[in-house]
Structures are given as structure tokens and as C-alpha cells.
Amino acid sequence: MIMNYIPDWGIVSKAMPLLLSGMRTSIVLTLLVVCIGLSLGIPVALARMSGIYIIRYLAQAYIEIFRCTPLLLQLFWVFYALPMVFGIKLPGFLAAVLTIGLNLIAYMAEAYRSGFQSIPEEQIEAANVLQLSRFDQVIHIIFPQAFRQQLPSILSLLVGAFKDTVLVSTIGVADLMFQANTASQQYYRPFEIFTVTALFYFIIAFPVTLVVNALERHMLMQRDNV
User: Fold this and answer.
1) By CB neighbour count within 10 A (0-12 exposed, 13-18 middle, 19+ buried), where does 124 fall?
2) What is the pLDDT of residues 56-102, one digit of tens each?
3) Of 130, 137, 146, 214, most Cβ neighbours within 10 A?
4) How many other CB atoms are there within 10 angstroms of residue 45's CB atom?
């Protein structure tokens, strides 16, 4: 049977306040998660490369736990299981920031580690000759080069983090997806509401993917010219 459905795009204007409110929440959540991932991924990557076995093992265990389990399950565990086991009840937004942040740290740590290990050993030896501390080596030599080399991967992870925020609606956080679902039930127009919602996500994510592709082509050209 062919459905004679006639879209009513005018309903989108009525739903727009809800969608924009959810969009703000999604953007704020993403910015907080990105700050956590970008900053704390560095010490976790260094711990993963540590010469001390127990530190390296704990860092690896943390990374594998968060990379090898579904993010949705992690959200449910923090929001629902944590209060039952440890009596720690977190608001939905805070639970979302914590969970997605911890998840992104694990992926960022591996991206950083890959960049760190690509630094020529001669540069590290030269830094040791100059008696630079390990901290100075990381800040002035290792991190800038590693970050530049891994920038396409890092940006891809950040786009993924933004798209992952769609899951927080399952724990009651009023993000874009949550508000879109609310609007679709309120106005009985899921086709129009969810189509515009998908467009919102696309408008944010697509420009970043273009930057990632341009960076990858530029880096490939640089390698070919060497």
C-alpha cells in the first residue's frame, strides 16, 4: 500500500524553540566532553607508555574497558547502576558528561599514543642531551608534533563525540534528540521533526569532516613530496 502522506513543514517552526533548546544542550555537552578528552587523554597516553608495569597495565585496562563496551551500556551503568552499588546518584547531565568524557579519553589516549610513538628517537636523545625534563620534552617537543600528525584522527573522534551525545536522551537529558522526540509526540509529525533534527546534526558534523579530509590530503601530499 502506498501511503499518501503529505508533509507539513510549517510544524517545524512551532517545534523550533524545543529543537534549539536541545541543540544548545547538545553543544554545551559536546564542548565539555571535548575539553575532558583533549586534556586528560595526554596523561592516560603517557601512562599507557610508562615503563612502570602497574601504571601501564592500569592505563591499558582503562582504555580497553571503555573501548570494548558500548557507550550506551556505560551511560546506563553510571546513571542506574552507580547509585545502586555505591550510593552515588548523579544528575543526568553530569552523568552524561562524565561517561562520554571518560569514553573519549580512552580513544584520545590511543590517538595521542600513536602520535607520541612516531616521534623520531633522535629528537628524544637530543632533548636528553640538553637535559630537558620529561615534562618539557612532552610539552615542547613530543606533544606539538604528535598533535599535528594525529589532528585528522582527533577531529574525527570529536565529531564522533558530538554524534554520541544523541544517546544521552535515554537517561532523560534534554538534548536535541530528546527534544525532537518530545516535539514529534506533541505535534504527531515525526517525519518532519526528525528530518530537521538530522539536518541539525549534519550541519554541525559535515564541515568538520571536510576539514578532516582536507588535512588528510594535505598530509599525504607532504609525505609524497618528502
Assistant:
1) middle
2) 999 999 999 999 999 999 999 999 999 998 888 999 999 999 999 99
3) 146
4) 26
